[in-house]
Design brief:
Elements: E1 5-9, H1 12-24, E2 29-33, E3 46-50, H2 58-74, E4 79-83, H3 96-107, E5 112-115, E6 123-126, E7 129-132, E8 135-136, H4 155-162, E9 167-170, H5 172-177, H6 179-191, E10 196-199, H7 204-213, E11 219-222, H8 227-236, E12 255-260, H9 265-276, E13 281-283, H10 286-290, H11 295-306, E14 312-315, H12 320-330, H13 332-352, E15 355-361, H14 363-372, E16 377-385, E17 388-393, E18 400-404, H15 413-422
Parallel strand pairs: 1-3, 1-4, 2-3, 4-11, 5-10, 5-11, 9-10, 12-14, 12-15, 13-14, 15-18
Antiparallel strand pairs: 2-16, 6-7, 7-8, 16-17, 17-18
The structure holds adenosine-5'-diphosphate.
Length: 423
């Protein structure tokens, strides 16, 4: 059977978030890490290709996304979904705009939408402005993000700075009037020379109306929130059977660890919760890393005996003033890469020590860890919290992985993650 939905995610936690949503909504989904070189598993309705293109140089992000698109076209996908973060994480140069531009060009399409809204996780868009919980994006913790600080909440402006196309808005009054009104507005905008429309959405109902209006668009760009509606579309037109796509994940047994490279507010609170519950913790000091100290070896030597008694947490997570001090010393990108590489080597070491159940907090961090572990694909299991499912790696020696986008999850996320495995 033909695969219907081909998805390109700009980071690894985003990819599992999307794949989890698709599975919950009834699509048999595989998540591949990077552009696959192996044939597809049979019987899938959706493929999610996880790239690490959010923060790579623009040319690399574009080239990787086109390679992923070509694979998905070859696999027979009929609609394409470019997935980015619900907080629209990007820099003024990209990569959401340039990747969208190139995907449109490759698909020969003149119009698409941009809709990162995820109301269930309190990301809403009104009059083109993105809100995180009750505040504008620019007033949220995202303004301090180590790699993609977001200081402008007006998504039309943000995307216009990145894209060569003209960016417009479909505002909430239109969205609230329903699918046909949205479709009419899409046509009007195109007639007015607008090629990409940011779309307001403040509720799941809005997302369903928007997805209905997108049924014929070859390319959708969005957060994971819109995915449920897209699945409903396919079911509505009878191409997707009514089915549950949930599969029992193979059980892994072994040691447990958490790696935290996210400095997001949610992760800081979750880390404190885990430490307060008695999880032994080890701080990776970036200053020592930069000095060339044997931080990775020290962390693993610390972890080895403690792993016998239960999960440990190894973290670089620090408050924004501390991160900034380190970035001022080293430069933002070098600082980020240095920490990511260290955490990735620690993940390798932990697996050698017998860890088979690993939670990773942070999108870039997850990318670095999954690459270091040479994982080619993931099977998607139950959600721990919205947007974060447990997964199991494909191939020999499976590892259970929960890849958590920094800002996702309730304060007791780590505790919940282990509880779910204990069930
Ligand atoms: P999130 O999902 O919260 O965005 P990411 O892992 O994507 O988390 O990004 C966090 C970035 O911050 C990574 O590049 C990580 O290496 C970097 N980082 C983590 N801790 C520190 C620190 N103490 N100082 C500087 N950079 C850090």
């Amino acid at each position: 059977m033909t695969v219907m939905l081909g998805c390109i995610a700009d980071d690894f936690t985003g990819a599992t978030d999307l794949a989890g949503m698709l599975v919950e909504a009834g699509m048999r989904t595989v998540q591949m890490i990077g552009v696959p070189t192996t044939p597809l598993p049979d019987d899938v309705d959706a493929i999610v290709i996880a790239l690490k293109s959010r923060t790579s140089p623009v040319e690399t992000a574009v080239a990787d996304s086109v390679a992923a698109l070509n694979y998905l076209r070859e696999a027979g996908c009929s609609q394409f979904y470019f997935k980015y973060c619900s907080t629209f994480d990007s820099t003024d140069k990209g990569n959401i705009g340039p990747v969208t531009d190139m995907l449109m060009e490759e698909l020969g399409t003149k119009f698409t939408i941009a809709c990162p809204a995820f109301p269930e996780n309190k990301r809403t868009i009104y009059k083109g402005h993105l809100f995180v919980e009750d505040v504008l994006l620019s007033e949220s913790g995202m303004r301090y993000h180590p790699l993609t600080p977001m200081s402008d909440s007006n998504l039309v402006q943000v995307l216009q700075r990145q894209s060569k196309h003209t960016v417009g808005l479909i505002d909430w009054n239109i969205v609230n009037a329903g699918g046909q009104a949205i479709r009419d507005r899409m046509q009007r905008l195109q007639a007015d020379g607008i090629n990409i429309a940011v779309v307001d959405a403040i509720s799941n109902k809005d997302l369903l109306e928007i997805s209905e209006a997108c049924v014929d668009l070859p390319l959708i760009t969005a957060g994971s929130g819109l995915a449920t509606g897209i699945t409903k579309n396919l079911r509505g037109v009878g191409v997707l059977p009514h089915q549950s796509a949930k599969q029992d994940l193979p059980l892994t047994t072994g040691k447990r660890a958490i790696i935290c490279g996210s400095c997001s507010q949610a992760t800081q609170a979750q880390l404190n919760d885990a430490l307060a519950r008695g999880t032994p913790g080890y701080f990776i000091d970036p200053v020592l890393l930069a000095d060339g100290s044997a931080v990775v070896e020290d962390a693993l030597a610390w972890a080895a005996p403690r792993l016998l008694d239960g999960p440990v947490v190894i973290y670089a997570t620090a408050p924004s003033n501390r991160v900034k001090r380190f970035q001022d010393q080293l430069g933002r990108e070098r600082a980020g890469a240095l920490v990511e590489q260290a955490l990735a080597r620690i993940a390798q070491g932990l697996v050698k020590l017998g860890v088979t159940q690993l939670v990773v907090a942070g999108g870039e961090t997850s990318g670095a860890v999954v690459s270091a572990l040479a994982i080619k694909g993931l099977r998607i299991g139950p959600q721990i919290d919205p947007g974060v499912p447990w997964t199991v790696s494909l191939g020999d020696n499976p590892i259970s992985l929960a890849l958590k986008s920094g800002n996702f999850g309730s304060v007791d996320f780590f505790y919940k993650a282990w509880s779910l495995l204990n069930e």
